[in-house]
């Protein structure tokens, strides 16, 4: 297929619309079901790059939940605990830990379930039956993966009354080294970002008094930085246990990025509090309604006192934070510390780096400077 005609572009009045290869070659994708739209394909191409890079960097299956060209969540294929199964609404009959890929998507979706409503899914590996069964019960627009087992494809084809978008991408496809785009009739050109998000040696060169970066923190910081590479800037990502806890995207202020990411992370952490985890719901309520009810409990009720919130978040150890550009002021660190952030990776280069480092030292946070900015627009 050399060209795929779209129903419309970003909005219904933007007609005609299509995707195609500038060199006239074959598209590296195959549409197996449904009719993906313009924004679907923007999400698909960005999310596929994210999970592909995670798979390569960390040698684990990866998944992403995308909305409006930024990840709502991303995660690695690590087994789910019983608490996580309950947290992510895993059906008791589904042996989700038999599929690392299914675990990755459940974790990615679980970052911010409100934002993931109607998401686009990216999977780093061939979609299996267990992953498809989990996807089946979530509200989603479509999925991209390097392949699907026959059983998985049949399950996915039943979603949205048969209109669910299923896209297969050639995993060997590599884009040209130079990328272009048109804005207001003007062509922009740049080299594609291909450098590692962080050189491994950087973890041995912390700029703070605290020096330790255990393997789990290194993994989680790489996850955060790769997620940021495909998040609309400015952006900040909070991670723990191989999954994102909160993504702050597209903010003009670095502090607002940190606040948004950490506020989301706080809500995600508090969903594990026994008072929230053990809420009872009417069996007729679907997953979106339950998510909304939990969000209301956490944001508009006093089910948890301020002290209970603070103590539970403080008990959540090993939280990491990545930033796509330097921190201009130490107030960013002050906010991160309230979400129990213990490890930070950021490019560095601010005229106030010394103040930011001191703020980390005051909060016993270990920080590395990558020297590599990750803006994405």
In the CATH scheme, the class of the largest domain would be Alpha Beta
- Strands, total number: 15
Tell me the series of helices and strands, N- to C-terminal.
EEEHEEHHEHEHEEEHEEHHHHEHEHE
Query: How does the overall form come out from the CA principal axes?
Result: globular
Q: How many helices does DSSP assign?
A: 12
- Beta-strand proportion: 15-25%
Strand order of the largest sheet: 3-8-7-6-4-5
> What's the number of domains?
2
Radius of gyration: 21 Å
Give an overview in words:
With 377 residues, the chain is α/β, with parallel strands linked by helices. 34% of the residues lie in helices and 22% in strands. It is built from twelve helices and 15 strands. It has helices spanning 38-58, 82-87, 100-110, 129-136, 150-156, 215-229, 254-270, 274-277, 287-300, 306-314, 331-337, 353-362, and strands at residues 3-6, 17-20, 29-33, 62-67, 70-76, 119-123, 140-145, 165-169, 178-183, 186-191, 235-240, 243-249, 319-323, 341-346, 366-369. The strands form four sheets. It has a six-stranded mixed beta sheet with strand order 3-8-7-6-4-5. A five-stranded mixed beta sheet has the order 12-11-13-14-15, with helices on both faces. It has a two-stranded antiparallel ribbon with strand order 1-2. The protein is globular.
């Amino acid at each position: 297929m050399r060209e795929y005609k779209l129903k419309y572009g970003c909005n219904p009045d933007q007609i005609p619309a299509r995707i195609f290869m500038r060199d006239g070659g074959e598209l590296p994708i195959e549409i197996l079901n449904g009719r993906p739209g313009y924004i679907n394909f923007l999400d698909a191409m960005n999310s596929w790059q994210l999970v592909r890079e995670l798979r390569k960097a960390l040698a684990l299956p990866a998944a992403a939940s995308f909305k409006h060209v930024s990840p709502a969540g991303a995660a690695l294929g690590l087994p789910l605990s019983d608490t996580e199964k309950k947290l992510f609404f895993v059906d008791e009959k589904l042996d989700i830990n038999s599929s690392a890929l299914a675990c990755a998507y459940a974790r990615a979706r679980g970052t911010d379930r409100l934002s993931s409503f109607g998401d686009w899914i990216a999977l780093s590996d061939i979609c299996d039956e267990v992953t498809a069964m989990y996807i089946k019960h979530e509200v989603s627009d479509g999925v991209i993966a390097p392949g699907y087992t026959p059983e998985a494809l049949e399950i996915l084809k039943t979603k949205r009354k048969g209109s669910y978008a299923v896209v297969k991408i050639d995993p060997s496809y590599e884009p040209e080294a130079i990328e272009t785009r048109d804005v207001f009739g003007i062509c922009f050109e740049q080299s594609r970002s291909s450098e590692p998000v962080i050189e491994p040696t950087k973890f041995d060169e912390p700029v703070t008094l605290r020096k330790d970066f255990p393997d789990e923190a290194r993994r989680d910081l790489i996850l955060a930085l790769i997620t940021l590479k495909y998040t609309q800037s400015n952006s900040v990502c909070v991670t723990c246990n191989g999954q994102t806890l909160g993504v702050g995207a597209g903010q003009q202020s670095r502090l607002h990025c940190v606040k948004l990411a950490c506020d989301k992370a706080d809500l995600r952490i508090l969903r594990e509090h026994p008072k929230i985890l053990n809420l009872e719901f009417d069996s007729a309520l679907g997953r979106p309604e339950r998510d909304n009810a939990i969000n209301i409990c956490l944001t508009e009720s006093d089910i948890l006192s301020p002290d209970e919130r603070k103590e539970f978040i403080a008990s959540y150890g090993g939280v990491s934070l990545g930033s796509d550009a330097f921190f201009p002021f130490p107030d960013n660190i002050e906010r991160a510390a309230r979400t129990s952030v213990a490890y930070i990776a950021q490019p560095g280069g601010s005229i106030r780096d010394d103040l930011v480092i001191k703020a980390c030292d005051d909060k016993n946070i270990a920080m590395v400077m990558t020297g590599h900015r990750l803006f994405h627009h």
